[in-house]
Fold this protein.
Amino acid sequence: MSHTLDPELRRALAARIRYYNEMGIYDFYRRETPGEVATVAAAAAASDAVAVSIQSESREEMSPRKAATVAVPVAVEDNIFEVLAPKPEQGVSDPGKALKIIREDLGDCTRCPLHKQGRKQIVFGVGNPTTDLMFVGEGPGADEDQQGEPFVGRAGQLLNNMIKAMGITREQVYIANIVKCRPPGNRTPEREECETCSPFLMRQIAVIKPQVVVALGAVAAKTLLAMNSSMAQLRGRFYDFKPTGVRSSDPNWDGCKLAVTYHPAFLLRDPRQKGEAWKDLQMVMKELGLKAAKSTT
Ligand code: SF4
């Protein structure tokens, strides 16, 4: 059964879920009839009028109401429940295996319009599944679409050099994008496309459990942080970050730090900003205890 949820309502519901996630609440139940509670996952294909009842183990803290209820009096979109339902990789302790499960779950994805706008393949992500450092860009370009790997074109070469300057190698980090299919003509991905695809990235982050995520460019930063600020406002500090809508299977991982810097493609267009980007990376290196590579020149 295919349903469509109004985009504004979908965004409002996603924001509410994020709010509850931040309070440590991850388990959501769908109230089928008054007094009857069924799991959302089991009920996802069911009715036209839905009430999502959000219950916490610490319900007393949710005063004055014992449990909050979000009434959604419209058709249910199957997609929205991917945010809510238990994830198939949960409980898998090997991050490499868990990433494979996420990739299988993504399948030959047709969840957003980018699937029919000329993509050759899905570009999932690449690198060390147990790394302390992740880089997240915007979306694949032509080279990435061709090779199925993020950051392999000119911008990728620059990113490799940036990573090398940090005293590490590309193989030691994990690299992914907000959207996994190439936007036609390298246009900026639409907000709807970012919101549809990024839950898979959130799951990747929850599996990898890095110490630091570096958002490359405004699209990555704004999507991950759910903030609509300028690069000038976003850069130069760390944010406490927890992937939205997903719980890491490691109870000891309580999120990570997130830093924002310029996208390498932007630095190719405006090399004068490389010094600023290096300042951002130095902040990350300090956090991770990395030493800059010795110059060979
Ligand atoms: S961009 Fe993401 S959500 Fe859209 S079709 Fe590709 S994999 Fe699916």
About this structure: The chain has two domains: 7-84, 95-288. The two ends are 62 Å apart (CA to CA). The CA atoms of residues 214 and 285 lie 11 Å apart.
